[in-house]
Predict the structure.
Amino acid sequence: MVQLNSEDVESHFAKGGTRRLFTMVRRALVLRCPNCGSRGLMKNWFKMVERCPTCGILIEREGNDYLSGSVMFNLVLAELIFAFVLVAYLLIVWPKVNWDVLGIAAPLGMAIAPFVLFPFSKLVWLAVDLALRPAHASELRDSKPQGVGGG
Ligand SMILES: [Zn+2]
């Protein structure tokens, strides 16, 4: 497990890391590689390629710790968005709330949200991780087809 100390993180963001973070999060929100911005990371909605086909960055950078952080981020993000939508709905329709519909829609929404947000949260998590721990050259594999660039 990689340790981060607060001085390293503050120093990184003082050197323009915030702009890089926003760029990478923006790429992640349109399901592109946070590192290079290329497409082609999705096999299907629930399965991603192991590495970016362009820059070669691992989508899951480390083992179990990275995956559990990604899953936790997905759940927190999904439930926060769900809570925001629920409160907005209540504020809009108050006091004429249809509690019968809400009693079905609320648990259904809570169950569905993490699946809908899965690829977005996974790539946003990668973007944040890359902002805090920039990729080393050893993490990037030359994944371009052999023989390209020969003039
Ligand atoms: Zn990439």
About this structure: The chain is about 60% helix and 5% strand. The chain has one domain: 18-135. Residues 64-93 form the longest helix (30 residues).
